[in-house]
Specification:
Oligomer: single chain
Number of helices: 6
Number of domains: 2
Distance between the termini: 60 Å
Number of strands: 8
Helix content: 40-55%
Shape: globular
Strand order of the largest sheet: 3-8-4-5-6-7
Strand content: 15-25%
Radius of gyration: 23 Å
CATH architecture of the largest domain: Alpha-Beta Complex
Structural class: alpha+beta
CATH superfamily of the largest domain: endopeptidase domain like (from Nostoc punctiforme)
Length: 169
């Protein structure tokens, strides 16, 4: 092989190596980068929030609870799910009611926080995460129950619904 052939072969290997590095770097960002894991678009992030909330279904209600190992109260579930996504929302429901921006009921999207004013209970403000599944939301209802997904179209929830907030832009 002459000198020219050696140079061409060396350049070909260098180009191949650079392509591999660029490919691996790109894949690494897609598989490991926080913006992609959490969703580079708000739609991906909203669906990730719902997915993580759904993964908590079956965990027990615990007043003051805010983790899968301890159990969740309603606002603890919302706080924990958003915290997992790097989004800071207040820990308690009455403060969560002021987080983000208000959303009309007709404009609720997956990942929005929904609120209900329950009369006659110690905790009068109940919160959950809208799942976008035909007006369903994921919440930790009360003592003796577990995190579940439930329809907001049920008379009970329709009667006490008071609003929604969007914390994902």
């Amino acid at each position: 092989m002459n000198e020219r052939g050696v140079v061409k072969k060396g350049i070909s290997r260098l180009v191949f190596f650079c392509c591999v590095v660029i490919f691996i770097s790109g894949c690494g960002k897609k598989m490991l980068g926080p913006s992609t894991v959490l969703g580079s678009s708000s739609n991906n992030l909203k669906h990730s929030v719902v997915k993580i909330a759904r993964a908590q279904i079956g965990h027990p209600y615990k007043w003051g609870g805010s983790s899968p190992s301890d159990g969740f109260d309603c606002s603890g579930l919302v706080w924990w799910v958003y915290k997992k996504h790097g989004i800071n929302v207040p820990r308690v429901s009455w403060q969560q009611q002021n987080a983000g921006k208000a959303v009309r009921r007709s404009e609720i999207q997956a990942g929005d926080i929904v609120f209900f004013k329950i009369p006659g209970q110690g905790k009068s403000l109940h919160t959950g995460i809208y799942s976008g599944n035909g007006y369903s939301f994921i919440h930790s209802p009360k003592s003796g129950h577990a995190v579940r997904e439930e329809s907001m179209l049920k008379n009970y929830w329709r009667r006490y619904y008071i609003g929604a907030r969007r914390v994902i832009k």
